[in-house]
């Protein structure tokens, strides 16, 4: 209770906590079923954490991502609150011990995926628990109209049967009215109370620009913005390229994507949080657990996957309430590429069957056989082996995961291990005569026990911090020790663990889920169309477009987005200047026009878009403008 009081005090004094979070907590404590729609950074987790801490018993939290579960468990544990994540690969004996801890060890939170709820053993164990609340995170996954529909979420309603007297709270950061209705129906919520916080952000300016030279604009943005920022790109390679580009041009930047090791992710994240490198270039893998309130700008160099994704990512700017920017840079080639990607990234039913068959062939699993142990899986290697397009394969696997056919975990060899092969005297002699690895050897011996008896987990990032070095240098030293046969070093890999959840049935397994597959693909395409409409609509205020998308009707123009700026009275004067410039019959790029017009580049670019839309000016294949 002392911990609960500490957390209550911390959050109750936070201005954003008073409404609607306090009302949600009150409703939950009154045993009401609740749906909470709170934008990114809206404090969703405290809405179920605090009621749980104020009551006897355990809270079951259903979450779609293993990494998200582990992050929340870590955060709770660091605050002295006992929590467990029930991830894949846990043996039945370990699972029995885990549930004993939940029942008798004063644990407060059990995190698990919706797929794990299909286990009769887990269902029986849940029956035996004293459960005070059931929280459904990312609840939009329940709905086929959600931007990340997962059919396995439909099975969560089994918890109503197991714990009929326990109330539910369903939480999401993005849901339309159709999705909210779907959530309520599928969870069989009774007398449900809906809490919605408006998506309107008066301090956040949405600015979308059609521009050829994005890198030049990026430099302009960060020349003017001396504050933490995020740059979102669509590929892992691009994170590194853009980070290097910014660094070469005098800015402090790091990069982040799903393919980095845990230690690399941690290092990049901490450098950004501490503002050692205030600019983070990342894929959408950078999002979970971000709680930095002074982000000034979020820049999208590539189009996001949907309006929902855009709002979640852009919403990481300006959480401190100060003026901030969400800038999206795009051009016609981006839109064409996005449309082509949408058209080619989703599989047919026959292609899903082919991938399913080849997964079993990869591991030589016979028809009708089910092997419950994990297989090491590398997506890129599998893609290359069977000549699959990476995006289509990724979406196919997602469909198989969503429908409970397979499960992929990113926990394979999450931590590196070492074992000393040489004797202690040999190690000491080696260290004295090899100064490049001496400090690493001595630090290992002082920091870890049992290194000569058994494989021991190590953390390269922690070692690097301890001896004020870098992860790269630590890794190189360990690899040298391995080469010299002083240690056996097994470096953590980025491979996944693949679990087959049903026996192999090459056609019938996929036929049973074909309707779900088709719905999933169709709604993804609808989301893509909605995003393109949002980007191309230069006549309606961006905030109004976003709010209407989420069914908020009584809204007014924000006055600070690119569309609103284009309607400003000053704009007519800018358009006149552009037309006058082009009357000289000299062809100009947008950069050249911006340099000749005495307004901000953003406003000039808005007017160029408007004049293009009105067919007053044109643009040639060299991205030069001319007067029609």
Per CATH, the superfamily of the largest domain is P-loop containing nucleotide triphosphate hydrolases
Q: Tell me, rounded to a whole number, the average pLDDT.
A: 86
Could you tell me the radius of gyration in angstroms? 27 Å
**Helical content band:** 40-55%
H/I helix tally:
27
CATH hierarchy: architecture of the largest domain: 3-Layer(aba) Sandwich
Question: Which structural class should the secondary elements be placed in?
Answer: alpha/beta
Low-confidence parts, pLDDT < 50 over ≥5 residues?
11-18
What is the CATH T-level topology of the largest domain? Rossmann fold
Largest sheet: 7 strands, parallel
Strand content: 5-15%
Q: Globular, elongated, flat, extended or rod-shaped: what is the shape?
A: globular
Distance between the termini: 73 Å
Look at the structure and give the CATH class of the largest domain.
Alpha Beta
List the domain count as a whole number. Answer: 5
> Biggest sheet: strands side by side, in what order?
3-4-2-5-6-1-7
Annotation, overall tally of beta strands: 21
What's the short version?
45% of the residues lie in helices and 15% in strands.
Describe the structure.
This protein is an alpha/beta fold and 628 residues long. It folds into 5 domains: 2-196, Rossmann fold; 201-330, 3-Layer(aba) Sandwich (Rossmann fold), CATH 3.40.50; 340-412 and 495-527, Winged helix-like DNA-binding domain superfamily/Winged helix DNA-binding domain (Arc Repressor Mutant, subunit A); 416-490; 568-628, Arc Repressor Mutant, subunit A. 45% of the residues lie in helices and 15% in strands. A 7-stranded parallel β-sheet has the order 3-4-2-5-6-1-7, sandwiched between helices. The longest helix has 23 residues, at 514-536. It starts with a helix and ends with a strand. The model is unreliable at 11-18 (pLDDT under 50).
